[in-house]
Amino acid sequence: MIDLKDKVALVTGASRGIGRATAIRFAEAGAHVVVNYVTSRTAAEQTAEEVAARGRDVAIVKADVSEQDDIESMMEFVDQTFGRLDILVSNAATGGFRPLLATTARNFEAAMNTNVRALLFLTQAAVPLMERSEGRKKIIGISSHGSHMALPMYGVIGGSKAALESIARHLALELGDRDFNVNIVQAGLVETDSTRRLPGSDQMFAARRTKQMVGERDLEPTDVADAVLFLSSSLSDLVQGQTLIVDGGAAVHV
Length: 254
Hints:
Blueprint lengths: L7 E4 L5 H12 L3 E6 L3 H13 L4 E5 L5 H15 L4 E4 L14 H26 L6 E8 L10 H21 L4 E8 L13 H11 L9 H11 L11 E4 L8
Parallel strand pairs: 1-2, 1-4, 2-3, 4-5, 5-6, 6-7
Helix pairs in contact: 1-2, 1-7, 3-4, 4-5
Keywords: Oxidoreductase
Family: Belongs to the short-chain dehydrogenases/reductases (SDR) family.
Protein name: Enoyl-[acyl-carrier-protein] reductase [NADPH] FabL
């Protein structure tokens, strides 16, 4: 059992999907959790109730991680509420599903600002707070298969995820000797509110079952959260600047 007793974790986009599953996993492992959301207060409150039900302290904060001012205000909130931060999970993502040839400058900027720039500015704002904690501090980003393979209507999001993975490696280079671990969890096709809107999602989910090599089991948000939990623990102290793929083996064969 992974023990994160009394650690403080911030999860962006924690109101649903992988973010929500991660927040709950943290609570089950003993961590106090900051639940970030940007649009759905009700869903964030539901996540917070799950955390509190496991006997952990929880705080909810609204912040748009594509905006640097919001990020800085959120870190001030974490400082005032808990006084430190041990674990940072950059999970919030956006982008919309459309062809690259139909992508506008606004579409591109929105995806890059939320999916890539957020990790950079979250880290910049969090480092002074995280350095107050003892032991190694953990920063984890959430990526997807689009970072290395072409998927229909996924060009901008996929490009942003590739950039996210690169930024994480360079952050690991800069922070590794300062008691930080920076890593990525790359999730396979997980059924969430977002992926259900992906054009052709029914066919993609059906095809996923033929590619995974774990029997009849489907990939769930909790499976991705388990990988985040590992990277947030002392068990991963020697894992640095890596992308951990959680997809049931779907990407290793045609």
